[in-house]
Amino acid sequence: MKINAILLVNNEADILEEALLSAMKFCHKIYVCDNGSTDGSWALVNEMSSRFSAIVIVELSCLPFHQPSVSNVYNTLHRQFSDDDWWYLLKADEVFAKSPERSLKEAAVQGSNGVKAWCAEFYFTDEDLANYELEDTSLPFAKRRKYYRIHNQETRFFKNAPKQTWSGNFHAATPSWITSIAKTASIVMRFSERSPTQMQIKVGANERNEDAFNNADSHTTLTLKKAKALNTYRNDGDFVLHKTTRIASYAKALVQGALQFTKLAQLAFQVRFKKTISESTIL
């Protein structure tokens, strides 16, 4: 069993190396494609690919229509791997709390072709701002940010299918034939709020506003979450998943499952109807 990751990069130079090094712990290959980075992210990827054979550059010229999308990367590479292998939909601002390999092996035994992960969203809070000038920036964000909340789960892994392409809705989270989803893998830690500068840029602030947090009169430019209202991670692998979040997630999964079943039933009816019409015409 091999785990291959697909990563589209777009201006995440501050955390990109951390995400890649984390994924390399359990990935066979990480296929990286640039999506218009202007902050040095792509130069960093190229530098890391020269040091690590697991990081593979995917040039736009190699993709259908030269479009950087996860589906295009998959369709370009899936025939190189077997149906025992998995794809990981990697994001540049995340790391897994522990390797998902065990969960994927269990899913394969169960006959599942997709695996979800609970997403722990880490925030830059009022407490982080108060201690920001004293922060040790040499540490990875996984060690610097500790206030989080788990809001949802996402399908982040799916089985490779050498004979099936990702067709139809190319912007869908996974291919349409990923229908048997196993229990969740490890917690994925997402750091979409990393520093004042990064947050300002994320919301479209221009350069003259990037230092707003350094000014006591202007650091409220962005709304920060209160640390006391969030859960605290102590780097021990233990996370708090609130019951309401679990129930809401399962309810959403049931609705999505019902919609998928309805869609498949409609397709089956259409095929049968066309066959009936065809047979009637022949008679």
* Poorly predicted ranges: 205-220
Which class of the largest domain in CATH terms?
Alpha Beta
Give the % helix: 25-40%
Biggest sheet details: 10 strands, mixed
Q: Could you say how many structural domains there are in total?
A: 2
Total helical elements: 8
Mean pLDDT, as a whole number? 84
- How widely separated are the two ends? 51 Å
General shape: globular
Tally of strands: 10
**How much of the sequence is in beta strands?**
15-25%
Topology order in helix (H) and strand (E) letters: EHEHEHEEHEHHEEEHEH
Supply the helix-strand structural class: alpha/beta
For the record, the CATH architecture of the largest domain stands as Alpha-Beta Complex
CATH fold-level name of the largest domain: Spore Coat Polysaccharide Biosynthesis Protein SpsA, Chain A
Radius of gyration using CA atoms only = 22 Å
Write the layout of secondary structure elements.
Layout: E1 3-9, H1 13-23, E2 29-34, H2 41-51, E3 55-57, H3 70-77, E4 86-89, E5 94-96, H4 101-110, E6 114-122, H5 126-130, H6 141-144, E7 147-159, E8 181-182, E9 188-190, H7 196-202, E10 231-232, H8 243-282
Parallel strand pairs: 1-2, 1-4, 2-3, 6-8, 6-9
Antiparallel strand pairs: 4-7, 5-9, 6-7, 7-10
Helix pairs in contact: 1-2
